[in-house]
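Quick one:
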Amino acid sequence: MAKKSTSADPKPTTSPSKVLQLIREKWPEYVLEVVVIIFSITISFAFDEWKDERHKRELEQTYLKGLYSDIQTDISQLGEVIAETKQVVQIATKLTTVTPQSPTIDYHQFVSDVRFIFKRPRFVAEDATFSDLKSTGNMQVISKFPLKQALFDYYKQYETIGRVETAELETTNTIIGPYLLARLPLAEQASQPPKSNWTAVMTETAYQNAVLVRRATREELLQDYQQSLRLGKAILASIKSQLN
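Output:
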């Protein structure tokens, strides 16, 4: 009677020669499989990259349209602000040349002119799209670097205008306004000239300085508004060439 084996039968092993033989017989299939895998991965990456690029271009078009609309509105507003600012400068210049001896001096016109130079036409830019580009980190979707640079220059110019307008308001409220209001009745209902010699104010140094400050500040702002207008028009032309 044969004895039962007490240990597990040894597993068959594959010799190196058999492995090599198998590779030699199957290598075309293995190579083909590797090629298919690499090709599939490449196609997948290419497709994902195409989708990302398409999404960026669609997003860029959306932003470009928003920027175009915002700056187009700005240009319309700048046209009005520039026109009114030129009037303020023109009338302030006129007031510096009027004297009590001027043959056409008229109380009502003089007061109207003084009242007019207090006008403060302001430029308030539409910056919603640009602010969104910065806050969301999507500035990268704007593919043209010159356009990005122009946008930063344009809104930096707007910040400069804001600072000058704020300084102008403070000067008008604290220095120029109180002086002129104390010297002239500027209310619309003041139809009759005061009994005092109202033309004497024209010869006062404080009056001349007040009018000159108003003119100088508005001339500075006029240059800033015109610069913004030039930048805005250039940006519109650049955006228009990129819109689908």
